[in-house]
Amino acid sequence: MTTLEPELAKVPVTVLTGFLGSGKTTLLNRILTEQHGLKIAVIENEYGEISIDHDLVVETDEEVFEMNNGCICCSVRGDLIRILGQILRRKQRFDHILIETTGLADPGPVIQTFFMDQELAGQLQLDGVVTVVDAKHVGLHLGEAPEVQEQIAFADVIVLNKTDLVDEADLDALEGRIGGLNAVATVHRAQNAEIPIAEVLGIGGYDLQRHDALVDRPLVPAPTGELPMASPARHDDAVGSVGIATDGELDAERFHEWLSTLLQEQGEDIFRSKGIVNLQGEEDPWVFQGVHMLLSGEHGRPWGAAPPTNRLVFIGRNLDRAGLEAGFRTCLA
Amino acid sequence: MSVQPDEVTVRAVASTDLDDWVGAVAWDPTGSVVAGACADGRVVTLAAADGAVREVGRHSEPATHVAWSPDGVLASTGQDGVVLLGDAGRVVLEGRGWPQALAWRPDGRRLAVARGRQVHLLDQDGATVGTSKPFPATVSSLAWSTRGGRLAAGTYGGVRMLQGDGLRTDRWLRWEGSVLAVAVSPDGRRLAHGNQDDSVLFWDLGGRNQLEMQGYETKVQELSWRADGRLLATGGGQAVTVWDFAGRGPAGSRPLELDHHEQPVSWVGFAPTGDLLATVAFDGRLVLWRPPHDRPVAGVEIEDALTCGAWSPDGRRLAVGGTDGTLAVVELA
Hints:
The complex is a heterodimer of chains A (333) and B (333).
Chain A: E1 11-18, H1 24-33, E2 40-45, E3 56-60, E4 64-69, E5 72-77, H2 78-87, E6 96-100, H3 107-116, H4 118-123, E7 124-134, H5 138-144, H6 146-153, E8 157-161, H7 168-181, E9 186-189, H8 212-216, E10 239-246, H9 252-266, E11 270-277, E12 286-291, E13 294-299, E14 310-317, H10 321-329
Parallel strand pairs in A: 1-6, 1-7, 2-3, 2-6, 7-8, 8-9
Antiparallel strand pairs in A: 4-5, 10-14, 11-12, 11-14, 12-13
Chain B: E1 10-17, E2 22-27, E3 33-38, E4 42-47, E5 53-58, E6 63-68, E7 74-78, E8 83-85, E9 90-93, E10 99-104, E11 110-115, E12 118-123, E13 128-131, E14 139-144, E15 150-163, E16 168-184, E17 190-195, E18 199-204, E19 210-214, E20 222-225, E21 231-235, E22 240-244, E23 256-258, E24 265-270, E25 277-281, E26 285-289, E27 298-301, E28 306-311, E29 317-322, E30 326-332
Antiparallel strand pairs in B: 1-30, 2-3, 3-4, 4-5, 6-7, 7-8, 8-9, 10-11, 11-12, 12-13, 14-15, 15-16, 16-17, 17-18, 18-19, 20-21, 21-22, 22-23, 24-25, 25-26, 26-27, 28-29, 29-30
């Protein structure tokens, strides 16, 4: 065999999370009923809040299990491996797959499923995690349910819903608090889960080549390595973001060693990591992303007009900001 | 492709196009008709002699499994959760969930169905005679012992050996991982299971010894024992790995690697008697081997990515199914 067939485009998958009553199912119905011309398959938890009427709706019973693959140990969703594998066997190809989790689900295992199972990884592309937040009640939930913090921490897009029930000042404060939990997610305010579909589907949350968001984010590069992404800790949230933004070249070997060791040792608490860095001797940026202990990286698009820099974000539980910063500094060439 | 015509030649003798993914094939006990499960819901038979095609059952969702009893009773199941029996496709079991396995007891008097976390047992007329209690995780695979005394049920957490119509757990082969495929050696001495964690595990059923073999390229879903129980062929990724249980067994030994396919292997099967091994892959090739020789002895390429295969009971024919709807019969000479 000398010719390889062109690889079929991977089917994008969006994970929809949100605490009970946040409006997650309203958003799901909105996505399904809008005239977008997409053929969408929905995988819904067994205890969905409202019944939905659609082409292919598969109900599932969440089955989280530990998977030990060489040196990586992580949780995946066995039910999704089975269901997605079989959905891919239909002649009718879907343009998009939506997975709605239960209100109490930890999105971690759902996301890791797409990286740990090679059959799925070859055919599906995780597009992003969309988390619906009830602006009126989330303050209460944040303190009581660790799942809410996890769902926000894992989000690429946060739909701050039911804004009509909250005044402007409270919304600003809430958005600030969410920014402290997850410094890289895009937050949209909405009433009745009304949001343009382009803001929730096709967002490329796990596309390593879309690092513009990281670079363009209005954080002033601080020569001292100050951490401008971190918002003031007005709340005692266990989950938070640590951002590192600094110029200078990194020693490639030391950096890879530091990052992989960090995720090996602290991957349980570091939910997501993302970054674009300037490695010594490399013309193009190096971009990476991690989900717990899973890490992937590649060369990014050329720096272009933007001056080379280093931007890293870690989102997780009880993160040791000083330790992360000190560790990173040892990588500077 | 180049083939060494070495004593065996194969040629396609009958074929039909079902126009959608054929997920499973099975031979009738006389080896003259093959049944295929199609993703459009149909269960179709193809006669080897004259190529006659007949629809014998229809599921409202994709058909996924077919199994023919030694007495000539055809059973099928699909994502509609229904089990159909006989030439007229009579509904004998209904319910929620996608069945994962279908297996006649070697005497043909019991049909085991794995659906969700339970195993159902039907008699040859389709009457339910037993249902297991719900296990903690979905049952992924089933295998009867050679004489039918035990039913091995693979699940997350190991393999349960079920006994009698009550499907009581007689023995639990505990293992910390997700089991995807189970096979009991024809001599009843060993059990092998293929795992999500890119590994296989062997159990010495007479004792308590277990042996784990890691290092597969992907999860392992294909297993087949040679009729004499000495060799086990396994498929995970593009390579086929054959383990030898002669003497002190495979511990510490190097397995035979059959390296030929250029896409993931979708089925491996030793002939019902003798030493021929057939392998089928998404590269469209059906290849015959005679381990321990590591070169193909015959092969045929079909214009479709092959998903499944089966030996006729007399070992003279093979059937294969493909992603685009191929259902084909190949004859050995």
